[in-house]
Fold each of these.
Amino acid sequence: MEPNTIFLIFSFILGAVVGSFLNVCIYRLPREKSLAFPPSHCTSCSKPIPFYHNIPIISYLILRGRCYNCKEKYSWDYLFVELLAGILSLLLYLKYGPSIHFIFLFAFVMALIVITYIDLEHMIIPNVITYPGVIIGFVYSGLSTDYDTLKFLMENLQYNFLYILFIFDEIKIFSSILGAIIGSGSLLLVGFVYKNVRKIDGLGLGDVKLMAMVGAFLGWRSIIFVVLISSLVGTIVGLSIILYQKSNLKYAIPFGPFISFAATIYCFSGDLSLDYFLD
Ligand SMILES: [Zn+2]
């Protein structure tokens, strides 16, 4: 096999193994349980799951999604999360290869999977993910900033709007800081409008912090894309639910999954004049 094929297979396995851990996070984080203790056990009969019954994807298929002990049927979601994490990891490796972008965007996308599932089930986005997420996003941007270009731009500093905008575009750490600010700011604004028009709280602070994390990782331009696409998809899904149920939406639908979806797409669509950013 070619080395590249081996790396591709490895990236899928890495994603699936991490996906298995994501399932633990999705179940335990909102229940405020420890991620490490106790070790994996059946949520039905509490029997510990030995490692040979805990192989990502394969164990689920061999045991046909049932507990090896009490035969309780497990949700398809466990398998789906492991497959999704594996596929996204493979696609990220295809796009970015062995690079700092792969490492950080892998962590970013994995966090988005956990956020999506927890928000769908519990209508919360844990601070335990978004706070460190913002910091790690800044670290990523700081590490991938071109400091020679920054030095050059600073030495030739011009005090006009276009030049300043150009700096925020070219210098990743600046783009990242601006992204976190306008990301959270734009969602606060959307939430404010929503509250005054529909008289209900449509967006939570969790969504605001999530957008700060997206901006920190992907830069300020991504915010335009993510706000547009997540609102569009969210509206389509919301209207479909209303039509399907033939009733008004009395409960709010979580917005985190739509933000996560749009941000994941953005990781791959590096063409919306983003080449500068994801090179
Ligand atoms: Zn069991």
Amino acid sequence: MSESGSALNHFPADRLRALAAGLFEDLRRMSFDGVGVTRECFGLLETAAQEHIAALAAAHGLQVARDRVRNLVVTLPGADPSAPFVATGSHLDTVPRGGNYDGAAGVVAGLLALVCIKLRGVAPSRTLKLLALRGEESAWFGKSWIGSRALFGQLDASDLARARFDTGRPLRAYLEDIGADVGAIARGEPIVRPSDIDVFIETHIEQGPVLQAQALPLGVVTGIYGNVRHMNIVCRGEAAHAGATPRFLRRDAVVAVADFVMRMDAHWARWLGDGKQLALTHGVIATDPKEHAVSRVPGEVRFSVEIRSDDWESLHGFHRLLREEAEAVSLARGVSFDFDEAIANRPAPMDPRWVDRLDRLCERAGIPHMRLASAAGHDAAVFAHAGVPTAMLFIRNAHGSHNPREGMDIDDLLLATRILADAMLTEAG
Ligand SMILES: [Zn+2]
């Protein structure tokens, strides 16, 4: 199914390793902030990182262009330019004081894959593209995946009015600074059609500890979690004197919420036991400091709920349970629950054929790997939601992500590059 054994065979392994290590070192040097690395969405250092990648791509004979939102597009033309293209990519921006591998690993792997394929000297049957997508991190403008959303015309004027958290300047101004076509972006004009893209394969460091714990260099992602969130649920009982109010007459909001939390925790354990992928978190929970007291039965508690899952039905099903249990606790304890509007993000399942293909490619190359879902969001979710067949490859990474201690091994990155290059040369069907 592949056009060659491995495209990486055309590049001496030690030179490829040195090229990759040098690239990450360059990126770190140009964006070191004294603690970690900072490359702001649509800022100078994101642009500088992009230009560094572009210069290397051009030096290796690849075509380099910028699209309307100034995503970097590196192209290796295929024998049949009219066929849908095969794309890989990730982002070069970081959170403030972030790590050097989040996003950049996928861009570097994509660049190395294209360079190696180009060195074979035979045009691939399909055009191959590397996208260095801008503005992935929500930390700056409160919106994720800006570059990839713009690809599919999913931004509007209200998005462009979003202010950057530290400067207060709107996204529109940053886009104008870098020469983006702000008018077309605000009108929601797409840059590509989903049918133009045969597959999008994103390589990314794993931002959790699973691959490290399992001693596996690579993971094949089965899907990206979606979520349902309530930011502010209010449980109302009745405030009362802590001494004078007997237990059977109390309508204690804290006890009611505690009961509710434990009921949901029991459901969560049961669902996990049934093999469902789910995460439940109450990250915010509080009585009102203006009126709470050691000697007062609490009359009101505010709290949040976040449910994550790779399965939309599970999210809905678990969300229904939430309402049912709130009803049951209300009856049992004489309280009421006032839910704010739920905010939902759909999960993004990866294309099952491509999950199988990546699995097989890892097996054939003898690379230990596992399948796992991504609990963190990625540009790949935007492609999957747009209807593009989408796949993701995770690289083992120590110490988590969005911090300066991200720890990826260059040898693991090269394994991912090998699988990515082979996957990009895999014939569809
Ligand atoms: Zn990322």
